[in-house]
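Methods, example record. To illustrate the input and output format used throughout this study, we show the complete record for Glycine N-methyltransferase. The sequence lines were provided to the predictor; the line carrying structure tokens was produced by it.
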Amino acid sequence: MPTSADSVFVARSAGISAEGVRDQYADGKAAKVWEIFIGDKNSRTENYKNFLVELLRSKGCKRVLDVACGTGVDSIMLLEEGYEVVSVDASDKMLKYALKERWNRRKEPAFDSWIIEEANWLTLYDDIKPIVGDGFDAVICLGNSFAHLMDNSGEQYDHKKAIRNFQKCLKPGGILLIDHRNYDDILQTGDTPAKSIYYNTSHTADIKTSVLFYCGKPAMVSLDYEIEGNNLSSEFRLSYYPHPLQNFKKMLKEIFGEKSMHKLYGDFKEINVEKKPAFYIHLIEK
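The corresponding predicted structure is encoded as:
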């Protein structure tokens, strides 16, 4: 018999825990629906898995910090590929799925030593400083996760602070992999592609897009997901800061330095292959 969520999940604020502001995952319901929707580690597309694993391997990465691990899907994939992974997220309700997987597979050495922490991007380096040590080979922030962090100042102070924390967690020569949706296209067309490049799912999703403007500038994009399939009927809302591509590139260069190596991918391919990618993936080196 089909089940239905008893409420529409409101957007969490800034993708981080904050006093007096509701976290969209706080009651655990949205986390549960999202876990069902995206499926397990085997639901990750081969294109994504091959892109991430081969890229990390080509850069000689061994120690990886997943700063938006959510339910642990990507971290688990990397652990199984032989990487040493530290996983953090702001939502304890999302982390419980990763913690459960670690417990279930605790007899495997990689999972027994898997470090999982609740952490805030704005205080990340200080939160996990003892774990950082000499620095990570790679920091990953994927799945459009960074866009959860809103701009409360109008000057992107929190965005820059978070990325500086990511940079501080890297060793010299380490890389940051960070992505965002093609918000330039979303703002121009008013539509969001329903198909994800990150996961295969047996559920179908209709996405309704709305844009909030502040002082004439787009300040937030809200995506209302309506999910059907396998006896699941639910809806929830996720809200994001709409990063324009050129602004994001400029912000990365400001923090990492103008001479830092930066490469852009579109949907896990060379940027000139996809004319209108759904996602942009940035690689920048410390």
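Annotations derived from this record:
The chain has one domain: 3-285.
Residues 3-285 form a domain with the Rossmann fold fold (CATH 3.40.50.150).
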